[in-house]
Specification:
Two copies of one chain form a homodimer. Chain A is of the alpha/beta class and 339 residues long. Chain A has three domains: 44 residues, lambda repressor-like DNA-binding domains (434 Repressor (Amino-terminal Domain)), CATH 1.10.260.40; 138 residues, Rossmann fold (3-Layer(aba) Sandwich), CATH 3.40.50.2300; 132 residues, Response regulator (Rossmann fold, 3-Layer(aba) Sandwich), CATH 3.40.50.2300. In chain A, strand 6, helix 9 and strand 7 form a beta-alpha-beta unit. The longest helix of chain A is centred in the last third of the chain and has 20 residues. Chain A is elongated, with a radius of gyration of 26 Å. At the A-B interface, helix 4, helix 5, strand 2, helix 6 and helix 11 of A face helix 4, helix 5, strand 2, helix 6 and helix 11 of B. Chain B binds a DNA duplex (16 and 16 nucleotides) through helix 2 and helix 4.
DNA sequence: TTGTAAGCGTTATCAC
DNA sequence: GTGATAACGCTTACAA
């Protein structure tokens, strides 16, 4: 059975397509009785508007595209939850694509979304993204884009982030105030802004508390395999620095990798070494020992980014100029047994 | 800057839109030199085809819709990963919607996807879905639909599942063979087929091994809050049945809730009570004790379901009749420290 | 209050 | 080998 069109209804009622369209969309200049008849017939025939035709006509797809590094990360699935919910509230549908932390894929996905004529794009950059031509080009073409979490400082568009630097600062300060003196940092890749910021927060906290920064205590986790990065670097650290008494990890998954190595090797947490994570994944509350972490509001980040994006889409559509927003969402620390 | 259209290229070259379209799409009946010129100009002007117009013309959107209960579940994000990857391989984009385990939402989302004119739909049913009119209606309208994981046995369409009953059977048999004698089951809601099947597998394993089935050992977890369901029912079980020596849980999250209660109350796992989970989430390998579980291939399930769906979309489009498939993906047990 | 006609950007048919 | 022309289903000036 082919889908019912306006024409079918018009024919059935012996009126024009225009009138049917108007009646269905609640125009005032349609006779009460015709309106009623149209509504009834539409229901009877089980009419559903052809969105594609509407899209072509109105030059809007009521669809937004999302590019994230990977959906199989609790943080990002929380974000997606926020995005999908908020979008739906405004009548938008969401197309999801993954970059797998590759710039090349990110470019390709962006291109796909452009072709698809989505009304706007939400994205969190890949670890490889440290130049932004592909994004700037779309921006110049008036495509509303909102960056979240992993952003490019130099990109001129709205952003929704947390203050990674101060979140890290707070976590490390907490460790110091708790009495830990020799604190290592398991950092992320070198390019991403949030990886840099967390590192800077770590460093600043040390210095502000009169602890000398020692670069040999910074371990790099950049194999896109957080858990094993944590595990193997923990092993390395134990061999290289017996005096370390705490670790601030870039991610909960890294931290859990550390926990695993320590547990296997009878290194007591937090007595021998304390561990602090970042993101507060669900599992952090159930591992042993439970993991102290930075609470990062994924759902709200997705929600807010979507809200801003849809606002910009509407303004863009009405040719009303607007200025970019930078929202910094609050974070907090959750202290558990690992520190 | 407005997007470039075929017309723009045609004008620039002083030829017809038709010829441009043909040249771009590799038709044979187009002069070599014109073809070359068109390709060059298209590139120069940075032309990208307007998918919406193509969609309207070809009556295909190259888009598939997905409805899952909740994206914030590791199993489903694995599935999504598989879906998105496979779809992209075939040039399809994916729109994701959540039912939040509510039939009402499921219906609404299905309706949205229908309006959006997606080419096909992938879905995993909500816990409340035990009648299928909304799905059957679409099926009658020739919309290809593939159900996965949480299916309706009575729905006539292709399905990709695991054999929940035998997976549960294997898990419980393992427990019995390991020497556990009084085995409880923390089951899921009453309606979902996989919840029923896991229960039946549990029951059958008991009976086949000469253990009497005792319905008072079956605890219901249906608050859509697996972790706390596991936690509170564990408490209840300890009070009601001191002799239970193992629990087979419907889900890893339920199992982790159990673990938590036992750990807090100094009940030794597996010495006092063993715990077996289902799904093998990442966290199961890092909790204490590590959790034995049933390995459920989420990524592959999403991938396979998508493959079948796209096949059916193509056949449907060519009006070639096809028969529905039922794919049963293999599962396995991963034995860890909790049993 | 209702209808005509144009147009959104493409593709497909058919004539030249 | 090339190009009018119609059509996909809808919205919207504008006319009646």
């Amino acid at each position: 059975m082919e889908p019912i069109t306006l024409k079918d209804i018009a024919n059935a009622l012996n009126i024009s397509v225009t009138t049917v369209s108007k009646a269905l969309r609640g125009y005032i200049d349609v006779g009460a009785s015709t309106k009623k008849a149209v509504l009834k017939m539409a229901k009877e025939m089980n009419y559903t508007p052809n969105t594609v035709a509407v899209n072509l006509r109105t030059q809007q797809t009521k669809t937004i595209g999302v590019i994230i590094p990977s959906i199989v990360h609790q943080f990002f699935s929380n974000v997606m939850d926020g995005i999908i919910n908020e979008a739906e509230k405004h009548g938008y549908l969401v197309i999801t694509l993954q970059s797998n932390e590759k710039l090349e894929f990110e470019k390709k996905q962006l291109h796909l979304l452009q072709q698809k004529r989505v009304d706007g794009i939400l994205m969190s950059l890949s670890n490889e993204t440290y130049q932004f031509d592909h994004i700037n080009e779309l921006l110049q073409n008036k495509m509303p884009i909102v960056l979240f979490d992993k952003i490019g400082k130099l990109v001129k568009c709205s952003k929704v982030i947390i203050d990674d630097q101060s979140a890290a600062y707070n976590a490390v300060s907490y460790l110091i105030e708790k009495g830990y003196k020799r604190i290592a940092h398991f950092r992320g890749s070198l390019q991403p802004q949030n990886s840099i910021d967390r590192f800077l927060g770590y460093k600043k906290a040390l210095i502000d508390h009169g602890i000398k920064f020692d670069s040999s205590l910074v371990y790099l986790c950049d194999n896109n395999d957080d858990f094993n990065d944590g595990y193997t670097n923990a092993k390395k650290l134990v061999n290289e620095h017996q005096d370390v008494d705490a670790i601030f990890a870039i991610t909960d998954v890294v931290a859990v990798g550390i926990l695993k190595y320590f547990n296997e090797n009878n290194i007591k947490i937090p007595e021998d070494i304390a561990v602090f994570g970042f993101s507060d994944w669900f599992m952090s509350s159930v591992v042993t020992p439970t993991l102290s972490s930075v609470v990062q509001p994924g759902f709200e980040m997705g929600r807010k980014a979507t809200e801003i994006l849809i606002e910009e889409i509407k303004l863009e559509h009405k040719k009303i100029p607007y200025s970019f927003q930078k929202i910094v969402l609050p974070t907090s620390l959750v202290i558990r047994k690992s520190t």
